[in-house]
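Narrative summary of target 7.
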Amino acid sequence: MGRFILRRVLGAIPLLLGVAVLSFLFMQLAPGGPDAMFARNARMTAEQLEQIRHNMGLDQPAPVQLARWIGNLARGDLGVSYSQYRPVSEVIRDVFPNTVLLMAAGLSLALVLSLFFGILAARNPYGLFDNVTSFISYFGLAMPVFWFGLMLQLLFAVHLGWLPSAGMRDPDSGGILDLLAHLALPAFTIAIGSIAGWSRYVRSSTLDQLGQDYVRTARAKGVAGPAIIRRHVLRNALIPFVTVVAIDAPLYLTGAVLTETVFSWPGMGRLFFDSLTVRDYPVLMGCLMLGAVLIVAGNLLADVVYGLLDPRISF
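Modeled conformation, tokenized:
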């Protein structure tokens, strides 16, 4: 397995290099840019603006800027934020734990509920519970995330007053219960799409395994239904499910853009949105690179989990 992981890591280097080049080119082609941001200051003279551009290397040709960006990236240097005037790595480090917390909560919620709904629906296919979960799944897949978040705010924060509507902590409080209260609505909002889609994958793969010969043999030997699912079916049914989770989980970083903006959650998504508003390109490129690294790591983790779930898989 060690050789396999090493090959995958080495193979990801050209991919990440391509992401770095494309992200730089897209930022170069985007309208506005740092010149427009600095020019908003009416007290800044043309000489001062030119000095800032020179200090940041923005007066260099695009190929020179690209080469410097790749070289700095190889050393772990993501550049300096145009708006905050400090290293991008520090800017991301300040908010990344908040996004990890939100992603972990949403992912845990999505995994538990999708497995629960999918397995129950597969045990009684085309029954009442299966039809209800199918309707809810289609609704969850078709529903805009930002609209669902606003509806949750309107119901639980405005009308019922059970949960806070935005933010991460109450200034007058700072305990774990206050954090969980602020986390509940955004975590469920970011998880609703995964719950809708993943539960259908679990249902489909579980139904497929329930029709296999080894399940009929276990039933003929008198093994109870829950034991069959727990000991035999679930392990085989989770193999395709792992693929979907490994690909979708890093995308929580992109889904957090809308969720964190709606709920004013101080994380990567909110940082990306604010940086996009002010054209802070180094921060945007840093966020894109981090997202690419997470996607590569997620796919590698899925391949490793395959071997743990199915011993027949060889690396």
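The first helix runs from residue 2 to 29.
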